[in-house]
């Protein structure tokens, strides 16, 4: 592939504004519609537009039978998971992208943009306007209010948890892509800058990688079946004080060995959901059955590892993917300001900085696994998600 493709819009590709025309026939050479330059970097402007945007649509494949308003659907169930975390205070701590991000100036470099963890009402945590009322009730019924506790042998439950983690991430990618298109249409010169084209290419690639997964989920949902998903279930014999959902490709296994998740330039991800129940907690890791060969050894390793080693691993890995993390006040208030700041820092990492920290985590996992003296995995460091 031409390396310039990551930094340059070519004449004969579809215009990034979404018109369907070729770039040379559409936005090439168009002037900036907002000539008064904002002091905020373009990526901050996109983030602010996303914060204001209310892209309402139903992601359910049965579009012809949508009914009712597009609602604030919860990626993590309000009446079960969020309520347990919120307790009597009825609030949790999470990254609230509706709030103004912090812009931290760095001498000689682009400013850092950080979204803080904030106190959020239980009713508002992990909500997106991505399902109509009818389909929100139908699609997730097996795990919603009134449903029994999680059953490790229930394929429908495992399927729905995996689908929910995936589809909310897919929706956010769709929104991000649409916002970029709107920004490009208004400000073609600004959004042709190399760093902005890079963001556009990442968005294009992710949607391309997500599409086969979406097709599988859509097909199963329309047929009323729950096949084609492989799930590794971790049972924790106490109630944890956090929850999260993600659709990610972890770089390293429990021993710090690389997971070869990218094949021919395509990244294959797993859906991860961690959640508490009354007396137990669960971490679910799911992938398509067609991708089982990529994660089979990782899943087997987890199934045979001591629980303390598993907790150590996820306390290392999840903070790096903590955009969708929800923390109970109990856990958040046990951390001092330094830990809270570090957790927020990890949650905001991206690009090359993210890669560097991922490599450092891999090294830490290898050092622990190869220690000549048996490593004490119960000592999980300052950011301990399982702190009691």
List keywords for this structure.
388 residues, seven-stranded antiparallel β-sheet, SEC_C_motif, Zinc chelation protein SecC, two-stranded antiparallel ribbon, alpha+beta, 2 domains, 10 helices
**Helicity, as a percent range:** 25-40%
Instruction: Please give the alpha-carbon distance between the first and last residues.
Output: 50 Å
- Spans with pLDDT under 50 lasting ≥5 residues? none
Largest sheet: 7 strands, antiparallel
Describe this structure in words.
InterPro entries: SEC_C_motif. This is Zinc chelation protein SecC. The protein is 38% helix and 16% strand. The radius of gyration is 21 Å and the shape is globular. The strands form four sheets. The chain has a seven-stranded antiparallel β-sheet with strand order 5-2-13-8-11-12-7, with helices on both faces. A two-stranded antiparallel ribbon has the order 1-6. The protein has a two-stranded antiparallel ribbon with strand order 3-4. The N and C termini lie far apart (50 Å). Helix 4 (155-186) runs antiparallel to helix 5. It has two domains: 45-223, no CATH class; 229-370, no CATH class. The chain is α+β, with helices and mostly antiparallel strands and 388 residues long.
């Amino acid at each position: 592939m031409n390396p310039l493709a990551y930094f340059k819009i070519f004449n004969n590709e579809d215009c990034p504004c979404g018109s369907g025309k070729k770039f040379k026939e559409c936005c090439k050479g168009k002037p900036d519609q907002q000539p008064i330059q904002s002091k905020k970097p373009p990526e901050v402007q996109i983030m602010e537009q996303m914060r204001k945007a209310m892209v309402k649509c139903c992601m359910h494949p049965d579009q012809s039978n949508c009914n009712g308003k597009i609602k604030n659907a919860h990626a993590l169930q309000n009446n079960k998971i969020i309520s347990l975390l919120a307790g009597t205070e009825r609030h949790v701590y999470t990254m609230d992208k509706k709030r103004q991000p912090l812009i931290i100036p760095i001498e000689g470099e682009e400013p850092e943009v950080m979204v803080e963890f904030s106190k959020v009402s239980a009713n508002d945590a992990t909500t997106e306007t991505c399902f109509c009322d009818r389909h929100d009730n139908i699609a997730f019924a097996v795990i919603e209010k009134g449903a029994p506790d999680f059953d490790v042998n229930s394929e429908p439950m495992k399927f729905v948890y995996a689908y929910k983690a995936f589809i909310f991430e897919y929706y956010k990618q769709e929104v991000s892509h649409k916002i970029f298109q709107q920004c490009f249409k208004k400000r073609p010169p600004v959004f042709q800058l190399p760093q902005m084209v890079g963001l556009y290419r990442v968005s294009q690639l992710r949607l391309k990688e997500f599409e086969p997964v979406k097709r599988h989920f859509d097909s199963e949902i329309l047929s009323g079946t729950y096949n084609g998903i492989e799930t590794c279930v971790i049972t924790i014999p106490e109630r944890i004080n956090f929850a999260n959902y993600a659709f990610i490709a972890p770089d390293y296994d429990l021993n710090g060995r690389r997971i070869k998740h990218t094949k021919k330039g395509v990244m294959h991800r797993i859906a991860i959901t961690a959640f508490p129940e009354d007396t137990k907690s669960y971490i679910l890791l799911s992938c398509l059955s067609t991708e089982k060969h990529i994660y089979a050894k990782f899943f087997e390793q987890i199934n045979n590892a001591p629980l303390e080693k598993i907790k150590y691993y996820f306390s290392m890995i999840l903070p790096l993917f903590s955009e969708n993390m929800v923390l109970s006040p109990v856990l958040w208030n046990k951390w001092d300001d330094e830990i809270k700041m570090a957790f927020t820092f990890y949650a905001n990492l991206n690009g090359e900085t993210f890669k560097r920290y991922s490599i450092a985590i891999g090294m830490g996992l290898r050092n622990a696994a190869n220690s000549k003296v048996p490593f004490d995995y119960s000592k999980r460091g300052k950011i301990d998600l399982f702190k009691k």
